[in-house]
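Notebook entry, cofactor series.
This is the third protein in the set we're modelling with a bound small molecule. For this one the ligand is guanosine-5'-triphosphate. I'm keeping the input format identical across the series so the outputs can be compared line by line later. Sequence and SMILES below, as received.
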Amino acid sequence: MSTLVEGAKRLVGRADDVTDRLDGLEEAARAARGRLPDDLVDEAAEVVDRAGARLRLSGDHTVVALAGATGSGKSTTFNALTGLDVAATGVRRPTTSWTMACTWGSDAAPELLDWLGVPKRHQVRRESMLDLPPGAGAGRSPASLDGLVLLDLPDHDSTEVAHHVEVDRLVKLADLLVWVVDPQKYADAALHERYLRPLRTHRDIMLVVLNHIDEVAESRRPAMVADLERLLAEDGLEKVPVLTASARDGQGIPELTDSIARQVGRKKAVKARLMADVGSVARRLQDVNGDARPGDVARARRTQLVDAFADAAGVPTVVHAVEMSTRRRAAQAAGWPVTSWLSRLKPDPLRRLHLDLGGRRAGGTELVAAARASVPEPTRVQRARVDTAVRALSDDVGAELAPPWADAVRRASTSRLPDLNDALDRAVTSTDLGVARTPLWWRGVRLVQWLLMLVALVGGLWLLGLAVLGYLQLSAPASPDTYGLPLPTLLLLGGVALGVLLGLVCKAVVRLSARRRARAADRRLRSAIDEVAVRLVVEPVQAEVEAYRATHAALAAALR
Ligand SMILES: Nc1nc2c(ncn2[C@@H]2O[C@H](COP(=O)(O)OP(=O)(O)OP(=O)(O)O)[C@@H](O)[C@H]2O)c(=O)[nH]1
Ligand SMILES: [Mg+2]
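Returned structure with ligand:
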């Protein structure tokens, strides 16, 4: 909860629904900032500020503003209600340029008047009702206007810009609005379009006075009141009370005083005004916010994204290189020694990509830079696949959301993509591809291969010795026969044949294990890329979904 509303709660001394609803609106404005239209979000924040300020000020005072067109008789009504002759009235228009304030009761509410921006020289004070003009307070307790702060506003329709700026400002701050209209101008578009219609959410804190009624023939009065009520109904203000008055001769003033006194006595106008403000802006926010219940990012969309990223990062190339590199290293380690050296002539496919074999960690930027230069840059097709996958993910999440949120999701989904290439490079280069490990059986096979070589060598040398002896016509000792073959021949042929055979068998086994290693590398690379996908796309999108949910819940609280 904000310190502002918290402060208001402490000062007002009650944790009621006003502060709960204000909390809701404040949270909604915070969560919707940058997502829903700025002017609405600003307005919500302004309402929260204003309400917090009003709640911190006197709750025992009710600010009632007399508003209306020039010449409608606001100042005359003000004078009639106060029983004083302080507000300038005149035939020359506009007459009132500064707001006048009159406070009833022992507490002059200086802070409230300060907040309303009414300077001391424009303030007057009524201690009690006892000195009201005859008729004005008739039939009621003399203290019934205690706590009233009555404002006489300038007109809203003259050419003086400063006047309607002042009216607009105070119309937002007053707890109760009394619109003083006259028979000539009660239908003016300026009044209805600019003020009354936008305030249709505030009908509980409004009153309309049809003044100058003495100038209308008595027989025409009911029809005129009905016409005014019809116009108000068109504005959405059907239940607003309409009084008739003649401020100049005091007609209708007791009824108006009564009406105001009732509101002041109930002390509900402050809260009603704030609730109307909160309700109005919260409802408009809710209209643009929508009522969707979006799900989280779907598993399938995330997988699709990881596939596209993996493709763009050259994972298939790297995985293939892992398989080839494993085969090459196995051939070197466990192949037939006579031919295994040949595989050394071909470069290691992984080293050609400047990738770590897994023993070292790619910590240095050098290695990353080298890798970036070597793993091929994504092609146009791969880029397009990434864009399609990102778009599919954000469309999926945004499908049910109202347009501003769908846009926010789309923006969030691409907001971190400029980092994609670097992030993918880092993910690939820092993944342990698991190629460096030399399995024990490779060493065993190697030992056996060398033993077989040794056997073949012994047989070969033996035969060579026999051949030399034969060449020199010397009698050679008879070679022992084994399985029908002379032993040296058996040793030579057997050593070579078994070596070649073992080499072939190993090659088949190595193919399988190379494929397994490639699959393992693929898994590890994809999990590193999954992290990239989460960080760059899923999390930003999810943050928007959370912001939407927070806004939705907060608006529900503001409108409860
Ligand atoms: N006949 C008649 N004249 C009125 C009535 N109320 C006010 N007047 C006169 O109308 C003129 C204008 O009245 P104001 O009270 O100055 O009007 P206002 O609404 O304050 O005007 P601005 O300050 O210019 O906005 C004055 O000459 C008043 O005497 C009324 O009920 N009947
Ligand atoms: Mg005036």
